[in-house]
Amino acid sequence: MLAVPEMDLQGLYIGSSPQRSPVPSPPASPRTQESCGIAPLTPSQSPKPEARGPQQAPFSVVVAIDFGTTSSGYAFSFASDPEAIHMMRKWEGGDPGVAHQKTPTCLLLTPEGAFHSFGYTARDYYHDLDPEEARDWLYFEKFKMKIHSTTDLTLKTQLEAVNGKKMPALEVFAHALRFFKEHALQELREQCPSLLEEDSVRWVLTVPAIWKQPAKQFMREAAYLAGLVSREDAEQLLIALEPEAASVYCRKLRLHQLVDLSSRAPGRGCLGERRSIDSSFRQAREQLRRSRHSRTFLVESGVGELWADMQAGDRYVVADCGGGTVDLTVHQLEQPHGTLKELYKASGGPCGAVGVDLAFEQLLGRIFGEDFITTFKRQRPAAWVDLTIAFEARKRTAGPHRTGAVNISLPFSFIDFYRKQGGHNVETALRKSSVNFVKWSSHGMLRMSCEAMNELFQPTVSGIIQHIEALLDRPEVQGVKLLFLVGGFAESAMLQHAVQAALGTRGLRVVVPHDVALTILKGAVLFGQAPGVVRVRRSPLTYGVGVLNRFVAGVHPPDKLLVRDGRRWCTDVFERFVAAEQSVALGEEVRRSYCPARPGQRRVLINLYCCAAEDARFITDPGVRKCGALSLELEPAEGGPDAAGAPPGRREIRAAMQFGDTEIKVTAIDVNTNRSVRAAIDFLSN
Q1: What is the C-alpha to C-alpha distance for residues 180 and 67, in angstroms, rounded to an integer?
Q2: 212: how many CB neighbours lie within 10 A of its CB?
């Protein structure tokens, strides 16, 4: 339904489709199909957006959960000593004698779908099940990437277990988050018995920066379902962007906590000999010597000596190389408080360590047949997991200068199943295949040459380097001095060598923190203690709504003309809230006012549109798509004219949207009564 504007209105909202996406309603506000018409009162940009600093609640402890594609963990710190980060205690399972500060992202559910275990415990229990019994259990691994790869993500999206059975993805993620909640709270209560109230805990969840709004909302919904926080206390949960968290942590580091890849002796396969990287900043130090106050302030405000020895305002890149994605961000360190400013929108792609696993699976398909591998995974899921574990162990030893072959143990179940399915043994299959760099060992193992292992890494490593080089070619990134290589995959000597070889010629200093796999987790804790540390971000997309504007002949296309009550309107105009790559300060608000179309209307729904282009004119332009809906829940209007003499039913609802945080946020008030209006943006209802 259209709400016709008054004479002084500049525009009127109209969607290109009469369909409206369902948005969950509070129990007290029943949804009515006929209550969706709205009319903007101030469709133009607010002349001076207001920036408000985030209001901090009095949390006594911050718990961060780094929910990774291949491994996950948690850490925490108390408000009384925020930089003293406590890592989770040793996980059960894993390799004997090795301290595990993360656990595999593996979830095991019973055949009835009830939670059984997570991490090493889930992996080991599933491995020990009888093969026939294992086919009924639901085992999930590396399932985080499903949220990124699903183009039509909703609350009903399904995940497939290794045995082929499906269940709602929201429940799978909620099971995992509930496990971390219970594990963390138990440890907190053991360390701090006085911590009795769960609402004194601020939770932080990490997600890739390249994730879109639906994926971020999905993680929040899973946290609600898991009981981390309630919807009424939404601010108790923060979504942290993984490369941002790494950046927050790296700015605290000292020189001895970093490894300079350009100075490593050739042939090293792990983090080893190095020289101090401060020699590369002597010129910057000389310039800062003239401003000793600046350096002192940076150190005293908590910024590491590396940054104090650099020119204030230096730019750097963080490349988060994880299990599922490579996630890139570019930051500028600001004086005097050491805050961070994003210089280019987050970039990257699905180039993570699992790409190497996929290449290994494809190699097996070339040798034994793709149909056999698919059948084996479905009918012997536990044995397949056993095989992937064996490959993972050998993958971690791969290095660019390794000369010896690698032996990978094949489970007996694999050998036996192939003989029954293929009619001959695996040694015969290897001889007949076109893969000449993988042999059969006399010890009953696959024997891969070092060239074969290097080839498995090549597509993923090349993809990561291409993403980094594309970023470095952007004009906004010129003058970068440093690249921090972080994330679990950044432990790989193969990746470290390739990145340094490709980027060293650019004069870029590539450095790796000592605790590279824990950088994001520790940074997420620091972010939870001070979420305002990233002061400015770049909007990844252009966001706005569709409106009616007065039709201007020769400017607007004739097919957009709408004549209503003798007035000429241009339909489907894309009215922009924020542009792609626009710098947006934390707390900066974009305000719009709307009035309900009818007296007594209980809900206002406004379709949101987005696109990658900055200059879209209409919501029907190529690349513009509906991405969500803004919902305003209205209390019954008080009868009679208001204090300003407005007629009954005439209400103005002022919405304020923030695009400078890790999530898009909205608040609203009823201007007539100055009361808050329940407002939400739903990105999962499409």
Answers
A1: 10
A2: 16
Q: Which residue has the tokens 């700015």?
A: 251
Distance CA 264, CA 637 (A): 70
Domain architecture of the chain: domains with CATH: 61-241 (3.30.420.40), 541-637+647-680 (2.60.34.10)
Other CB atoms closer than 10 Å to residue 48's CB: what's the count? 6
Q: How far apart are CA 303 and CA 682, in angstroms?
A: 37
Express each pLDDT in 17-33 by its tens digit: 333 333 332 333 333 33
Q: Using alpha carbons, select from 287, 259, 284 the residue that is nearest to residue 273.
A: 259
Kindly state the tokens that stand for 657: 């949207």
Residues 6 or more apart whose Cβ sits within 8 Å of residue 97 = none
DSSP string, 327-395: EEEEEEE-TTT--EEEEEEEEEES-STHHHHHHHHHHHHHHH-HHHHHHHHHH-HHHHHHHHHHHHHHH
Prior bond to 336 cis, omega within 30? Answer: yes
Asked if residue 122 lies in contact with residue 147, where contact means CB atoms within 8 angstroms, the answer is no
Which tokens hold the place of 626? 């509906």
Residue 492 near residue 353, CB atoms below 8 Å: yes
What pLDDT sits at residue 22? 32
- Strand order of the β-sheet with 406-409 is 406-409, 445-448, 438-440
pTM over 0.90: no
pLDDT digits (tens, 9 = 90+) for 566-580: 899 999 999 999 999
Residue with tokens 């824990």: 518
Query: Residue ranges of the alpha helices (H) in 52-144?
Result: 120-128, 131-134
For 535, other C-beta atoms within 10 Å of its C-beta total 18
Q: Is the pLDDT of residue 280 over 80?
A: no
Residue type, 135: R
Q: Which of 331, 327, 290, 328 is nearest to 307 (CA)?
A: 331
- In tens, the pLDDT along 287-329 reads 444 444 444 444 444 445 555 445 444 889 999 999 999 999 9
The pLDDT assigned to 639 comes to 56
- A 10 A CB-CB count for 7 gives 5
Q: Is residue 159 a contact partner of residue 140, using CB atoms and an 8 Å limit?
A: yes
Block residue for tokens 């590539």:
510
Helix (H, G, I), strand (E, B) or coil at 636: coil
> What strands lie across the sheet with 138-141, from one edge to the other?
115-118, 106-109, 138-141
